[in-house]
Amino acid sequence: MTSLEKDQTEAKRVTRASSKKRETKETSIQVNLDLDGDGEVTADTGLPFFDHMLSQLGRHAGFNLLVKADGDLDVDAHHSVEDVGIVLGECLNDALGDRSGIQRFSSLSVPLDEALVAVALDISGRPYLDYLVPIAQDAPVLGQPGFDPQLAEEFWRAFVTNATLTLHVRLVEGRNTHHILEASFKAVARCLRDAVRLEGSRVPSTKGIL
């Protein structure tokens, strides 16, 4: 066994998982995340379309993911969507630990019929979101209860801030709102799958920390 293979074996023995809860007057959120899973996902937020997007995220990232959310959907879906992003980001940040051995960077484009979304990601320790996915202000809500497509940006902003990563999401082509959002969640998922992959034992930064 080479020294690199030994490093990878040792790194994989570390459990990269996290569970967190968030309780406010507006929401109750529970997230369990295992980065080295097989894409098993349970999502129950009261918003079927959002559940569908979270399922895409976990499945295509190869994460085991459980999300349960009880929020004030009678007021608005915003609180639930944003708070899920917060807790999921906290879990990712926690599960990654000091980032030793991760690939760190990833970028790719994902199509879904007429939609094409490009994503670039850096697990940098510096939260930054560049989300260029224009959705018409009068675009219909998706699912029942309804998910406003504009909320996708709020989810990613909360996720990025709490995961402390840099994320660029750009719509290249697309007309169907469902296709556009699903392609974006799949693209981020595939980037996360690559970026968290273990390929050594060192922190991938000349600074020595991320």
SSE blueprint:
Blueprint lengths: L2 H10 L4 E7 L3 E8 L6 E4 L3 H14 L2 E8 L6 H19 L8 E8 L2 E8 L5 E5 L18 H13 L2 E8 L3 H19 L15
Parallel strand pairs: 3-4, 7-8
Antiparallel strand pairs: 1-2, 2-4, 5-6, 6-8
Helix pairs in contact: 2-5, 3-4
Keywords for this structure?
210 residues, alpha/beta, Ribosomal Protein S5, domain 2, four-stranded mixed beta sheet, 5 helices, 8 strands, 36% helix, 27% strand, globular
- The proportion of strand residues reads 25-35%
Question: Helical stretch count?
Answer: 5
Order of SSEs: HEEEHEHEEEHEH
Within the CATH hierarchy, at the fold level, what is the topology?
A: Ribosomal Protein S5, domain 2
Radius of gyration: 17 Å
The top-level CATH class is Alpha Beta
Catalogue the unreliable spans: none
Helix content: 25-40%
The overall average pLDDT, rounded, is 93
What about the largest sheet?
Answer: 4 strands, mixed
The CATH level-2 architecture is identified as 2-Layer Sandwich
CA-to-CA gap between the ends? 29 Å
Number of domains: 1
The largest sheet has its strands arranged as 1-2-4-3
| Classification by helices and strands | alpha/beta
